[in-house]
Design goal:
The protein has 316 residues and is an all-alpha fold. The chain is built from 13 helices and no strands. Helix 7 runs antiparallel to helix 10. The two termini are 26 Å apart.
Length: 316
């Protein structure tokens, strides 16, 4: 059912953006552009949905997401420092780290993977994970990263500052085909690793001690999952920019719809719900003439959901 709705949403998104004259140059151009847009939506939805469900599995909590642990602030800091260090020195651009091309995408993804993996392993690699401590550390790191970003943004010239502002706005339009291919390969490789973990992920839902008692190497699986999450979130953020509460929405919607947390169900359903939310949301808001407001709507709805889960104590 979710798959049919997702396909219909993507098809409607593409068809509503095409010119009326079939076969014209404008029609062919729009078809190619919208097709790339649809592929970007699918990649981002799969990456965000899978990474959020996996992250909540290893943390044992349905409130925590990579974004709430300061990842969006880390992305903003990376973008700010790249612009601050490279823009004044054009000869240092070389491979185009701050461009929207393949080198820029891979470079930004690599930087964020290293930084986020180190952060997650430090926070979650120990024997115990205190939910209150994790939330506090996530908030502190988010404020810390944003403070540093704000300081360096004040030192930028207006043109460089506009480049940082563009990076802060989530958008899946205009992504180059070669970047989509690279992003697709990263997502496919991560899904292969997740498939290799199999039912060990379901055992991880029981907690550390039960999982160890059942023969699962809890620390090793946690490290593997955190590295996979780092790659998925880094790739999706480098593709379209930060969307803080999107993963929280699709993951908890999948749990509520299915009534189970088994990964063979929640992972595909969370991904499909992400496609429906992004494609359907853009189509509806586009018809209303406020298409650019989708990220604002997602943040608003996600913020309300976060407060609801927190106040009703439905973290588990």
């Amino acid at each position: 059912m979710c798959a049919a709705v997702a396909v219909a949403a993507l098809a409607a998104l593409i068809l509503t953006g095409l010119p009326e004259t079939v076969g014209s140059r404008a029609w062919n151009y729009s078809l190619g552009r919208l097709s790339r847009h649809a592929v970007a939506i699918v990649l981002v939805s799969v990456a965000v949905g899978v990474s959020t469900v996996l992250f909540q599995t290893v943390t044992g909590n349905r409130i925590l997401t990579p974004a709430l642990m300061g990842f969006d602030s880390l992305y903003l800091l990376v973008q700010t420092m790249l612009v601050f260090l490279i823009v004044p020195r054009p000869e240092a651009i070389a491979g185009g780290l701050i461009s929207g091309g393949l080198t820029g995408f891979l470079g930004q993804t690599a930087i964020m993977v290293v930084a986020s993996t180190a952060l997650y392993l430090w926070l979650l690699g120990g024997r115990r994970t205190d939910i209150h401590l994790l939330l506090l550390v996530g908030v502190v790191f988010g404020v810390f990263f944003r403070s540093i970003s704000s300081f360096f943004q004040r030192l930028l010239d207006p043109a460089a500052y506009l480049r940082v502002q563009d990076a802060m706005s989530a958008s899946s339009r205009g992504v180059q085909p070669v970047v989509l291919v690279a992003g697709g390969l990263i997502v496919a490789a991560c899904l292969g690793v997740v498939a290799g973990l199999g039912r060990r992920l379901d055992v991880m839902l029981l907690g550390r001690d039960p999982a160890v008692a059942l023969g699962v190497d809890h620390r090793r699986v946690t490290i593997v999952v955190l590295v996979v999450v780092s790659f998925l979130v880094s790739a999706s953020t480098a593709l379209i920019g930060p969307v803080m509460f999107f993963g929280l929405i699709v993951a908890n919607a999948a749990y509520a719809l299915l009534g189970t947390a088994l990964h063979r169900f929640t992972l595909p359903v969370a991904s499909l719900l992400g496609v429906i939310a992004l494609a359907g949301g853009e189509m509806v808001l586009g018809a209303l003439g406020v298409e650019s407001a989708l990220s604002v709507v997602i943040e608003f709805v996600g913020g309300l959901l976060f407060l609801f889960l927190l106040l009703t104590n439905r973290a588990r």
